[in-house]
Design a protein that fits this description.
By secondary structure, the chain is an alpha+beta fold. The chain contains eight helices and 15 strands. The two termini are 13 Å apart.
């Protein structure tokens, strides 16, 4: 008989496209932020940890369509945390941690847009450590254009449950394949086939392996990599991480591609993943719908969230 020391936990990984899907990612809107907050608040049970990708700090793009009461615009992560708090109406509280990645500046004091990650942790979990002040830089850069290359990071939060168990959460958003190589144009598939992408996932795994306290960890986010690509296979086959959605539904790589997490025009791709160590037993993905299925998060971003429940061994 297996004995469980604590109740299940639920985690979410979601690329929210700067809360600007209605403007095709050009500008954030208050309505998009409100709808995503309400959708997360409608989950039953609520998520214990929410990992968001493509979240701004403070910039022209993130504030042009917002009316701010204060003289200085508040960071997007703070405004979203407020929206989520309003949508929850006192049922729970979340602590918000923002992990800055890259800034595209117009002047020293003005940015056109910024990039970053967010990890939200619900009350009931104690945050033991995080790297928000210095997220792990895993960017693969070439000397030419290195300063213009968007920084890619891994965010890390370690939490402890009320039952004293420790869990490590890693959130990331990795680069697209480099389009200036011959391989990009000659091969039939591209997402996850770039040499720059393989280098980045190697750095991601090295960081995760170094920082995790045990086998109870989750690595999730937008990897821009298809199942079966070299970047994906490195993490799953060579490093032994579990694609928990694939294992739960018993899907091979080819079948997994038929469960897309992102859509661009007529393209459908599974490029978001939830990978984990063997210290967790996954129960369900009942709130996860692929891109063309109707669900709570339909139409809110060019991605749909991955939402899973597990127990810590």
């Amino acid at each position: 008989m297996t004995m469980w020391a604590s109740p299940p936990l639920k985690v979410v990984s979601y690329n929210v496209r700067y809360f600007g899907h209605g403007t095709r990612g050009l500008f954030s809107t208050r309505g998009a932020m409100t709808r995503i907050a309400k959708s997360l608040a409608e989950l039953a049970p609520l998520a214990d940890v929410v990992c968001l990708q493509e979240v701004e700090n403070a910039s022209l793009r993130s504030h042009l369509f917002h009316t701010e009461d204060e003289d200085e615009p508040s960071p997007q992560a703070e405004r979203f945390a407020t929206k989520l708090h309003e949508a929850l109406d006192g049922r729970a509280e979340y602590g918000s941690h923002y992990f800055p990645a890259h800034t595209y500046r117009i002047t020293d004091s003005t940015s056109f847009y910024t990039t970053g990650l967010v990890i939200l942790v619900k009350n009931g979990l104690t945050v033991l450590a995080h790297n928000a002040a210095a997220p792990a830089d895993v960017t693969e850069r070439r000397k030419a254009g290195a300063r213009l290359k968007q920084t890619r990071i891994v965010a890390h939060v370690r939490v402890r449950t009320d039952h004293g168990q420790t869990l490590d959460i890693f959130n990331t958003h990795l680069s697209l394949p480099r389009a200036t190589t011959s391989e990009f144009w000659l091969q039939p598939f591209r997402m996850g086939y770039g040499k720059n992408q393989l280098e980045e996932v190697k750095r991601v795994h090295a960081f995760v392996d170094r920082e995790r306290a045990s086998d109870a960890f989750v690595l999730m986010g937008d990897f821009n990599s298809l199942p079966g690509s070299p970047a994906y296979r490195y993490l799953v086959n060579e490093c032994g991480l579990h694609d928990v959605y694939s294992r739960h539904h018993r899907l091979d790589e080819r079948a997994l591609r038929d469960h897309p997490t992102a859509g661009f025009l007529n393209l459908r791709m599974r490029i978001d993943h939830m990978l984990a160590g063997r210290g967790l037993s996954w129960l369900d993905f009942d709130d996860t719908f692929h891109f063309d299925q109707k669900g709570t998060f339909t139409g809110l971003s060019d991605h749909v969230p991955l939402i899973g429940r597990f127990r810590i061994h």
